[in-house]
Design goal:
The protein is mostly helical and about 350 residues long. Helices cover about 55% and strands about 0% of the residues.
Length: about 350
């Protein structure tokens, strides 16, 4: 039997069996009959069903896409299906999928003999945790919550209302994924001086010159055109501050190369204590922003430029660490639970994504 002779009900059943949006669109281009069936009133439901299978839970992603400051973050929003909303959900879901690929290498970084791929249920829980962390960052890590408000009880209670939506086990999943995101920040986006030193020695074991860390504190930036390198974002950034995608890979390869125009030590974000506070500040970025920086901003100057453009780089961002950990502790204490016990259970894989 030819495809053109299949009953519409059977064609719809085939569409409903697709597990990704790309599969639905590819199937719809198979023949005119399939395209005609896809073009009916079933188009949006089919696309949303495939998106749910690929990027679900979509309900949590919808909370991220539809949040704005005019309504409380903990309010569950129900919205009609639309193509415009679907495009936003696909963008958010694609970022969450990238964290699926990173999670195993970070979770089992030390005991790598246990490293494995995540099951479908674990991937679902990971995406859910990413969406919820994303919503928290979008709602509470912005200029409306400067440093002096982080410990005010009304603000803490407002943040806690969002976490009250989820069970302790789901909060443990968020803490688990948050630890992986923080590790990516600490080692890739904002590496410490020690990390830069270690990676430099690994790539150039025979190099005998010491790296010069924090040299910009003693010597102002020269105005000579020859010193306008990628570190200073001179020709990596467009007039709008956006980075050219093709430059990221080559820039990463040159990141640890010592040249007359570039000092690898300048890529470090400080020693242990200063670096800790840098990571705390940068942890306010949402998972999508952090993933973008990991993939497109290998140089310190790129990261600084992105933060200045996207977050304003004002007082609310500097010396104002993320508040999810503080709010998590508050909520668990309300429930009579201990946050350190929960974190230990996550480390022992008794709670979290892979429990």
């Amino acid at each position: 039997m030819h495809f053109e002779d299949l009953a519409n009900e059977l064609v719809l059943h085939i569409f409903q069996s697709c597990v990704s949006v790309n599969d639905v669109l590819t199937l719809a281009s198979t023949c005119r009959h399939f395209r005609k069936v896809f073009g009916t009133s079933q188009r949006l439901p089919l696309l949303y069903q495939a998106a749910e299978a690929e990027y679900g839970p979509l309900n949590d992603a919808i909370q991220v896409a539809t949040y704005n400051s005019s309504q409380p973050a903990h309010t569950i929003r129900r919205v009609p299906q639309s193509l415009a909303l679907l495009k936003q959900l696909l963008k958010i879901g694609s970022a969450a999928q990238k964290w699926e690929a990173i999670y195993p290498s970070k979770k089992w970084k030390d005991n790598f003999e246990d490293r494995r791929l995540l099951t479908s249920a674990e991937r679902y829980r990971l995406r859910r945790a990413v969406y919820r962390l994303w919503l928290y960052a979008k709602a509470f890590h912005n200029a409306r919550y400067p440093r002096l408000t982080r410990t005010l009880k009304p603000v803490v209670l407002e943040r806690a209302e969002l976490l009250h939506n989820w069970s302790s086990a789901e909060l443990a999943e968020m803490a688990d994924v948050g630890g992986v995101i923080r590790d990516v920040l600490r080692t890739h986006v904002c590496p410490s001086n020690g990390t830069i030193q270690r990676k430099f020695r690994k790539r150039f074991p025979d190099a005998d010159q010491p790296l010069l860390f924090n040299i910009h504190l003693n010597y102002p930036r020269p105005v000579a055109a020859a010193f306008q390198t990628h570190f200073h974002s001179a020709h990596q950034v467009s007039e709008s501050g956006r980075f050219f995608p093709g430059d990221a890979k080559s820039a990463y390869q040159r990141k640890y190369m010592s040249t007359p125009d570039h000092e690898p030590g300048a890529e470090g974000w400080g020693d242990d204590i200063p670096h800790y506070y840098v990571v705390e500040d940068m942890a306010k970025l949402d998972p999508g922003q952090i993933m973008w920086l990991k993939e497109n901003a290998p140089w310190k100057g790129m990261v600084e430029c992105y933060v200045t453009e996207t977050c304003g780089g004002g007082e609310w961002f500097r010396n104002n660490g993320e508040t999810f950990g503080q709010t998590l502790e508050w909520v668990l204490q309300e429930r009579g639970e201990d946050v350190e016990e929960m974190r230990e259970a996550v480390r022992e894989e008794e709670l979290g994504i892979v429990c």
